[in-house]
Specification:
Elements lengths: L41 H10 L16 H8 L2 H9 L10 H4 L1
């Protein structure tokens, strides 16, 4: 990630501006390690492909994204369309175990 160090040279509201690395070099903030997983199955594909969604607005308030682009994305009624087109409501998992099993 890059930390914003200068709001004039690194505007949050203008996604077309590339943030200069000399003002803010990329910083590694995490490493994700995922153990072995069961291979593809029709049942898991149904659960994950049709039953899950990713929405950055589900996270903690402190971790929510900034900027007009993401606010515009929030307003798009994409989940309602997907659910209606598939004939299947979106069921968000309560735990990772629901997806793994």
């Amino acid at each position: 990630m890059q930390l914003n160090t200068d709001l004039e040279k690194m505007p949050i509201e203008d996604a077309s501006v590339e943030w200069p690395e000399d003002l803010s070099p990329y910083v590694v903030v995490a490493r994700v390690r995922i153990g072995s997983q069961t291979g593809w199955s029709e049942e898991r594909s149904q659960v994950v492909d049709d039953g899950l969604s990713f929405d950055p607005w589900h996270g903690l308030e402190a971790h929510r994204p900034l900027g007009g682009v993401i606010r515009a994305r929030k307003a798009v009624p994409r989940l309602a369309f997907r659910s209606a087109a598939n004939g299947c409501p979106i069921h968000e998992p309560v735990s990772a175990r629901q997806v793994i099993e």
